[in-house]
Amino acid sequence: MHLLCLLSHSSQRSILLKRLGYFIFLCRHDYKNKILVAQHPLLVVSNQTATLVCNYTYNGTGKEFRASLHKGTDSSVEVCFISWNVTKIRSNSTKEFNCQGDHDKDKVIFNLWNMNANQTDIYFCKIEVMYPPPYVYNEKSNGTVIHVKETPIQIQEHQSTIPLWILATVTGILALYSMLITAGFFNYWQKSKKRLYHQSDYMNMTPRHPPYKNKGYPSYAPTRDYTAYRSWQP
Where are the transmembrane segments (predicted)? Predict the structure, then answer.
């Protein structure tokens, strides 16, 4: 009986050791395949362009990965994604966003452009191990709040292009009219000057009366001979 008790205790001990070893193996395997993601909490966008960096740590043996950017507190909207393996990278974006992803060592970079104020929200990075099994993905991180400021600069530029064309056209027309008016006035002035010159030449050709030599008598009156009056004197 004593021997049977010892055998039963030793078998139970071996079973416990096996279970403990299997549990430790599972814990180590789970820790090895775990993905941790870190994001910057806030990103302010003033020029409609944002660069969101997702830093991650992974110590597993995965060879094919997929990283995606999700919008909203419930991550219901997938903005864009990137998938890569040892030799190839592929990126894609939804129609509502202009987004492109890139992978660089232990981080994934999402570049967004032409953003508007309606796209202000919280964004989450999700990284998945697609192959080989087991399938692993990161726990939900704290996310990044992207605050897009309103920029009415493009609207003003778009509206200002039409008046510039109109202003240039009106200025060209006015300049042309002013040149035509100036040329016409100059031509009229030249013709008027020639006409006045011919009229002055015609007036100078008219004869003039000779001036009187004596104020009391006209120039054609005969002169008196005073010698006839002197003959009667003694």
Answer: 164-189
54 strand-pairing partners? 39, 108
In angstroms, how far is the first alpha carbon of the chain from the final one?
222
To the nearest whole percent, how much of the chain has pLDDT over 70? Answer: 65
Q: Which of 36, 77, 67, 76 is nearest to 129 (CA)?
A: 67
Say if CB 70 and CB 53 are below 8 A apart: no
| In the chain, % of residues over pLDDT 90 | 41
| DSSP letter string, 160-221 | HHHHHHHHHHHHHHHHHHHHHHHHHHHHHHHHHHHHHHHHHHHHHTS--PPPPSSSSS-TTS
* The token pair that represents 153 in the structure block: 């600069």
Taking Cα atoms as reference points, which of 64, 62, 71, 73 lies closest to residue 93?
71
Rounded to an integer, what distance in angstroms lies between the CA atom of residue 2 and that of residue 117? 81
Average pLDDT over residues 175-184: 86
Amino acid identity at 104: D
Helix (H, G, I), strand (E, B), or coil: what is residue 47?
coil
- Cα(31)–Cα(136) distance, rounded to whole angstroms? 11
Q: Cα(217)–Cα(220) distance, rounded to whole angstroms?
A: 8
Residue 161 has pLDDT above 80, yes or no: no
pTM of the model: 0.54
SS3 (DSSP) at 222: coil
- Model pLDDT, residue 32: 62
Task: Specify the DSSP element, H or E, that contains 9.
Answer: helix 2-32
> What is the C-alpha separation between 198 and 217, in angstroms, rounded?
38
